[in-house]
User: Fold this.
Amino acid sequence: MTKTATAKKINISQVARDAGLTPAAVHARLHSGWTLEQALARPVGPRGRPRKIPSPSVVSSTPPSDMLSPVKFYRYLWAIGVGVVLIGVLIGVVQGV
Assistant:
């Protein structure tokens, strides 16, 4: 398959092999919207995934690991509510209500 880059046709599969990448990886990256330079510059990590390149200027937007996500928080609340209801039912059964 060829793509036009600056009025010059190139064989992307051959360029990928020359860069030490598989043609499938480069084609997938291009299909995902990467530029040709980005697709060829970033090495492939284990299992075909691009390796993470650490950048000290990037601020993490993930919360600390000790914080509960809203989904987990509501699951805990639901579990506590179910437990309270079951205890109430058991107490009623024992008392003969």
In short: Residues 70-95 form the longest helix (26 residues).
